[in-house]
Amino acid sequence: MRLGYVPALDGLRAVAIAGVVLYHGTGHPAGGWLGVDLFFVLSGFLITTLLLEEHRSHGRVDILGFYRRRARRLMPALLAVLVVVLAFTGSVFGVVAGLGYFSNVVQMGAPESTMPPALEHLWSLAAEEQFYLVWPLLLFVLLRARLGLAVVLVLAGVVFTTIRQFQLWGAGEVFWQRIAYGPDTRSTAILVGCLLALLVSARGAPGFRFVQPVAVGLFAAFYIIDSESFVLSGFPLLLFACVSAVLIVRALDARSFLARALAVTPMVFLGRISYSLYLWHAPIFLLFGVSATEKGLSLIPALVLSLVAATASYYFIELPFLRRRARPEIDERLEPRQPALATAVASSS
């Protein structure tokens, strides 16, 4: 049973990127920055599901192939942004940190960022790639034993990162960047996504039909309410990740109201260009002098140019490289395929 292409998951990406971009440009919604954690849960779920599918089909996980596919997926668009930023700012260190995927470590180590403002948002890419440097190999080793062992280990990781957040937050002696960017504190959402994939693989996707309104309400509350210091205390971030996991499960059910709402064409399109939009919006906002506190009339042209740049990047940089991949069934979805898992979920809920 393969995941296939699920348009509603692109719709969830749209919800995530809209929250992040609007937060960076206007300061609203106050919790829009949590869109990054929605991305994390989605990423953990999708990558782990695809690795499990590969293991099920071939009895192994092609680790080097995985890294090649990740590079093909992420590097071309990232390089384009880094070249432009380097040309305008001359920040060699920032470009190296972005290219080497360690900008989160740089920013967690000081109360004032040493990254150029145009590249500060690359911390989330670094957090993901550091995680995926280890996870495919670890998962393959765990699968040679039992799937249940992988579940236990990931669950332990969720508990550890949550407790670690709470410890640092409660100590009151660390700056917020330490918690917000630290791999040992901000990996909760990725781990929850991985855990969801493992549980779905082992037991099938739960229905969550009656939980959906509660999950949507909690998600909206997290997005709207200004509670950054509280959310980073530990359990709230875990709760948001779990709510996001419920939304993913409901998005897999093509018959659910949520899936139908997320699968409308504008949402799917915005989700498809979300990676490029995430890369480009920060330097473009900086160019126009737009931020959460400084916006004015320049916000509109900044948003328009960001969407244009993201669309161009998607069609002229991302897609050409993705179409060269050798094994499309193991990468993130490029072209729609039969949504086998979505159909199975719909029939079981």
Key terms for this structure?
0% strand, disordered C terminus, mainly alpha, 349 residues, 71% helix
Separation of the first and last Cα atoms: 17 Å
The value of Rg in angstroms is: 19 Å
Low-confidence stretches: 326-349
Strand content: under 5%
Number of domains: 1
Number of helices: 17
- Globular, elongated, flat, extended or rod-shaped: what is the shape? globular
Average of the residue pLDDT scores: 89
Quick one: biggest sheet?
none
Q: Structural class, please?
A: mainly alpha
- Secondary-structure element pattern, one letter each: HHHHHHHHHHHHHHHHH
Residues in helices, as a percent range: over 70%
Strands, count:
0
Describe what this molecule looks like in 3D.
With 349 residues, the protein is an all-alpha fold. The chain has one domain. Helices cover 71% and strands 0% of the residues. It is built from 17 helices and no strands. It has helices spanning 7-26, 35-58, 63-89, 92-99, 103-108, 123-143, 147-171, 176-181, 188-203, 212-224, 228-231, 235-252, 257-262, 265-272, 274-287, 299-322, 340-348. α1 packs parallel to α15 (274-287), α3 runs parallel beside α15 and α7 (147-171) packs antiparallel against α9. The longest helix is centred in the N-terminal third of the chain and has 27 residues, at 63-89. The protein is globular, with a radius of gyration of 19 Å. The two termini are 17 Å apart.
Provide a compact summary of the structure.
This protein has one domain.
